[in-house]
Automatic annotation (TrEMBL):
One of its GO terms (biological process) is methylation. Pfam families: Methyltransf_25 (PF13649). It comes from the Bacteria. PANTHER family: METHYLTRANSFERASE, UBIQUINONE BIOSYNTHESIS O-METHYLTRANSFERASE, MITOCHONDRIAL. GO terms for molecular function: methyltransferase activity. This is Methyltransferase. It comes from Terrabacter aerolatus.
């Protein structure tokens, strides 16, 4: 499993900024989002759909990339999947490992995964591509295409809108980072160019504390 350098010597500044922000908020993020999935039947339905398709395709390893404190990773494990988690933020990985001692978590980047070609049956990226500027998404989709086996699955969740929000505060902390409200049409096109076929596209209105509608794309690697 991978470990990213935290020196930031060559990485883009948005990556360093995102890691610093999530390292700062990790414990409170985990606490504040506790129980969130239990209140989101559509989210559970989509994750359940993904899990059933992985199993009916013969099973195999699944990776939750940008797993944060592991709330989705833990849910996927409870559905019977052989799942591990990878995140940019060491503090998030520690929090995930503390909460889910039986699951393997490691630090790593969406854009350069320490995984062999065609080695996983599926990837879930649940609100982790939101910190990737739209022009840099194709690099991530190319990397996910490399690690997912043919006919394997990719499930994405992200806030939609086609604009960027700069945060100066989050989860009770003063932190600076950007979140991109991606455009589902553009993302669908980029997935197609990377060699994925989108099979499910769902959008829902903002609920509870959310400020923007949410998009979910399930795609199959060609
Ligand atoms: C909004 S949180 C979502 C966490 C988790 N998926 C969930 O739904 O609770 C975004 C997560 O993506 C991670 N992340 C952001 N950019 C990343 C990258 N380039 N590679 C890996 N993880 C990344 C952050 O560290 C953070 O934990």
């Amino acid at each position: 499993m991978s470990t990213v350098s935290t020196s930031g010597a060559t990485e883009p500044s948005h990556v360093t900024q995102t890691r610093t922000a999530y390292d700062t908020v990790a414990v409170d993020y985990a606490r504040l989002l506790d129980g969130e999935l239990a209140r989101s039947p559509l989210d559970r339905a989509l994750l359940g759909h993904f899990a059933e398709l992985v199993e009916s395709g013969g099973g195999g390893p699944v990776v939750d990339v940008g797993c944060g404190p592991g709330r989705i990773t833990g849910h996927l494990a409870s559905l019977g999947l052989d799942v591990s988690g990878i995140d940019l933020s060491p503090a998030m990985v520690s929090e995930a490992q503390r909460r889910h001692p039986d699951i393997a978590f490691s630090t790593g980047s969406l854009a350069a995964l320490d995984l062999a070609d065609a080695s996983v049956a599926g990837v879930v990226a649940w609100y982790s591509v939101i910190h990737r500027p739209p022009p840099l998404l194709p690099d991530v989709f190319a990397e996910l295409h490399r690690v997912i086996r043919p006919n394997g699955l990719l499930l994405l969740a992200f806030q939609l809108g086609g604009f960027t929000v700069r945060h100066e505060q989050a989860y009770g902390h003063e932190v600076t980072f950007e979140a991109h409200r991606h455009d589902p049409d553009s993302v669908t096109g980029q997935l197609g160019q990377a060699g994925f076929r989108v099979t499910v596209r769902t959008e829902r209105a903002a609920q509870d504390y959310e400020k923007t509608p949410q998009a979910f794309l399930l795609a199959r690697r060609e």
